[in-house]
Amino acid sequence: MTDEKELLLRLRTENTKEQAFKELLSLYKERLYWHIRKIVISHDDADDVLQNTFIKVYKNIHNFKGDSKLFSWMYRIATNESITHLNKNAKHLQISNEELQQHSISNLKADVYFEGDDIQLKLQQAIATLPQKQQLVFNMKYFDDIKYKDMAEILDTSEGALKASYHIAVKKIEDYLTSN
Q1: Which residue from 149, 153, 177, 180 is spatially nearest to 163, judged by alpha carbons?
Q2: What angle do CA 152, 137, 80 make, to 5 degrees?
Q3: DSSP per-residue letters across 108-170
């Protein structure tokens, strides 16, 4: 926690801000990329959203109150940016978010950055059938192993609701995988 406070202080000090931000990038870039990628599916979209996320973090670091962990605050920004991106794309294409998700999954096999096998592709298809909140909760718990307490801060909801969403998501994924 002291390291985080020290980094925050340097991020908010004009003559150390640039170097501290480079450290922040190096600490969280990969984790945030994969979090975003699981939401938006496409590598190119994930890169765009990641860039927007870090721009927002850079511009708004002075607004961070410290009520949560820095990483939770950044995950919340990344999650919101990802959802905004999906909503804009769906609106632009004049399709629902669910149709956009299915379209993205069907293009996943052709994505040169997707290194998964058929089982991982099937899992992604199963996840895509879930409502957006269940997708977020499942991805954050299953892939990122984020604690419910931290997830509650990121998604601004109760731990109990998150546990219920996760268990429902797991059941739906199991059902999808056994019937497909």
Answers
A1: 149
A2: 75
A3: HTT-TT----HHHHHHHHHHHTS-HHHHHHHIIIIIT---HHHHHHHHTS-HHHHHHHHHHHH
| Token pair listed for 59 | 């511009």
DSSP string, 4-54: HHHHHHHHTSTTTHHHHHHHHHHHHHHHHHHHHHHHH--HHHHHHHHHHHH
pTM score, whole prediction: 0.84
Nearest Cα neighbor of 141 from 133, 132, 131, 151 is: 151
Q: What is the pLDDT of residues 25-82, one digit of tens each?
A: 999 999 999 999 999 988 999 999 999 999 999 999 999 988 888 999 999 999 999 9
Q: Enter the tokens of residue 121.
A: 């592709």
Q: Residue 2 above 80 pLDDT?
A: no
Distance CA 101, CA 90 (A): 9
Residue type at position 176:
Y
